[in-house]
Design a protein that fits this description.
Elements lengths: L10 E6 L6 H6 L3 E4 L5 H9 L5 E6 L6 E14 L6 E16 H10 L8 H4 L5 E3 L2 H11 L5
Parallel strand pairs: 1-3
Antiparallel strand pairs: 1-6, 2-5, 3-4, 4-5
Length: about 150
Amino acid sequence: MGEEGGGSRRYWLVKTEPGDWSWADQAANGGVSRWDGVRNAQAQGFMKEMREGDLCFFYHSGGKAREVVGVTKVIKEWYLCEGNDGGAVDMEAVGEMQRPLTLKEIKEKAKEEEGNFDGLLLLKQPRLSVMPIPPRSWDRICELGGFQKP
């Protein structure tokens, strides 16, 4: 994955159905949550790669809401959860997108803009619930959604 200025920050996308856990729930929870309940082995593998300080797009999935709505930061790396089949990472809200960016818009931009969305798994494996985001795609999605990267 990409590095930022010689550092090791990586970028991710995590999906949730708004009826299960929405951006509003994240914000109302003091901005901190345990991200768990991921069953897919590939998605769990990506979660295990997350490091403290990595940034994640918070993505509403399912139904009509397929859009990037905010950004979170990993504050605790992968750990096993009691009473859970898998593990979790803890995340903290960083900020909301000025405007949600839909999957449809991302697909349209990917067709129009050469190179900005190369390697974006969201376009190849749209059902995967956790995935890495290439730095160039991260920057472009932030720009399109009006989010100022910390």
